[in-house]
Amino acid sequence: MSEARAAAPAGATSAVFSKSEMMIVAAARELAGQHVCFVGVGLPNIAVNLAQRTVAPDLELVYEAGVFGARPARLPLSIGDPTIVTGATAAVSMYELFSFYLQGGLVDVGFLGAAQIDRFGNINTTVIGPYDQPKVRLPGSGGACEIAINARQVFVIMRQSTRSFVERIDFRTSPGNLGGAEQAERIRREGGWLGRGPSVVITDLGIWHFGDDGEMRLDSLHPGATVDEIRATIGWEPRIAPSLATTPAPTAEELRLIRDELDPGGAYTQ
Amino acid sequence: MSTSKVASMRDAVAGLVRDGDTVAIEGFTHLISFAAGHEIIRQRRRDLTLARMTPDLIYDQMIAGGVARKLIFSWLGNPGVGGLGAIRRRIETGQPARLEVEEYSHFGMVGRYTAGAANLPFFPIRSYFETDLPAANPLIREIESPYGDGKVFAVPPLRPDVTIVHAQRADAAGNTQVWGLLGCQKEAAFAADRVIVVVEELVDEAVIRADPNRTIIPGLIVDAVVVEPFGAHPSYVQGAYDRDNRFYLDWDAITRDEASLDAWLRDWVYDLDGRAAYVEKLGADRVAALRPSGTAPSGVVDYGEYR
Question: Looking at this predicted complex, what is its ipTM?
Answer without folding.
Answer: 0.96
